[in-house]
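Thread: quick sanity check before group meeting

JM: Hey all, I'm pulling together slides for Thursday and realized we never actually wrote out the predicted structure for the chain we discussed last week. Dropping the sequence here so it's in one place. If anyone has concerns about the input, flag it before I start.
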Amino acid sequence: MVVVIITITSCREAYFPDDIRSLEHTLIIEGMICEGFSPEVSISYAMGYYETTQTPLSNATVVITDNLGNQVELTEESEGSYRPVSDEFTGINGRVYTLHVNTPDGNEYESDPMKIFEKPVIDSIYARLGALDVYSYNSDGEPVTKTKIQNGFYLFADLSAETNSTVYYRFNTSVIRLFSYLVQLPMKPQANIYYIWEAPAVIDDFYCVDFTTANNGRQILPEHKIGYLQWIEKPPRYAITTKSSTPWVLILKVYAISTGVYDYYHSIDQQLNSDNQMFAPVPSQIKTNIHCINDPARTVSGVFEASSMAVSYKAFLYINSDQLRSKILSEFPDSLGSGQVVENPPDFWIGF
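JM (edit): ok, ran it. Output follows.
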């Protein structure tokens, strides 16, 4: 037995499957139409084994139709990116939409019909103080050290729907951090208050999805885990002291999606979080709701999503490991870049 093992290990050589060397690239089609918004579609080729960037596909014919006979053709704004020339064609609750794509090589692709469901209802967003275990891994993917973060909190959301059918959701959650410090610059006669903010940072994965369960004639999704926020002090140079409270502003966007779209993102989640299991899923098992009409055997990836969206804003103030405050916000600009102003806070500033 020992001899056999030595023979096998000493004669090992690299194996390259034929599909790695193949010149045929998988087409990726990603499209979306949201209630009240115009559709947008991006088309590209997946990266080859030895490549580092995706290649956009230009000169495709892209059309979106609905179940009432309406349609709109999208034009190419930039390489591989397609949008309508006007904003007249927007998603409408209850309608069913289908994506059609003809590529320059003569292939025709079509999505499954996708319905826009009722807008999600976000009942509450809340936080719980707690520690987080963070692991460091070696080159073999094995955990080698564990660090416990004490100064932070977990974020959760509760959702519900007045229906008897399961509701599927996709989540996109970002946070903006606000800081204010008294700063004494060199050679300046007096200190000034600096109001500083960071650009939104996404705290959940783009494939984050979940679904409801039945409860007394309605559907509920309790305690959907959003993520964890760690308190980190970030004083600028020459800061004397903190002037005011330093909150996070949470921007939670929830999309009501179809089962097909849920399956797509859920299969990505399984692929990326398989943790080297013996029977871990392979990329070909990632599901899609887009198919090649003229050649059903042709591989295509991506998804076409028709959805409605609800957004909620809430500010959280970490005081210490035993104290946390929060404030519901009616609105907040979610497209801010990082910036700062002196003396007078911007209009969007949140105080506690």
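AS: nice. The radius of gyration is 25 Å. The chain is about 10% helix and 50% strand.
JM: adding both to the slides.
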